[in-house]
Amino acid sequence: MTKLTNIAFIRAQAGKGDLLGARLNKLATPSRNEPGCINYDVHRSIDDPDMWFVYENWRSKADLDAHFEMPHMKEFVAAIPSLVDGPLDLRHLTMTTEPAHAAP
């Protein structure tokens, strides 16, 4: 089965970096609990507090497609126009290595 990686660079509207981050971080737990989620991690730029990065890996395209149909994702997508500056920079890749295991 082909594992997929979804990478998103997301710029907050001016003055909304913390709010966007809170909304992105709120997605982590329910996303990690979805079937097929390998990992779901949110990052903030050190140099630009309005720039956020989401790195997620999924067991299959079907799992990733199902992720975008989940209520928590639909709620976030609906909020994008009020939080995000410009288009999302989304990248879809195929994972070519086995996922790393979390450190003990």
UniProtKB/TrEMBL annotation:
GO terms for molecular function: monooxygenase activity. Residues 4-93 form the ABM domain. It comes from the Bacteria. Pfam families: ABM (PF03992). Keywords: Monooxygenase, Oxidoreductase. The keyword Transferase does not apply. Coiled coil: none annotated. PANTHER family: ABM DOMAIN-CONTAINING PROTEIN (PTHR33336:SF3), QUINOL MONOOXYGENASE YGIN-RELATED (PTHR33336). This is Antibiotic biosynthesis monooxygenase.
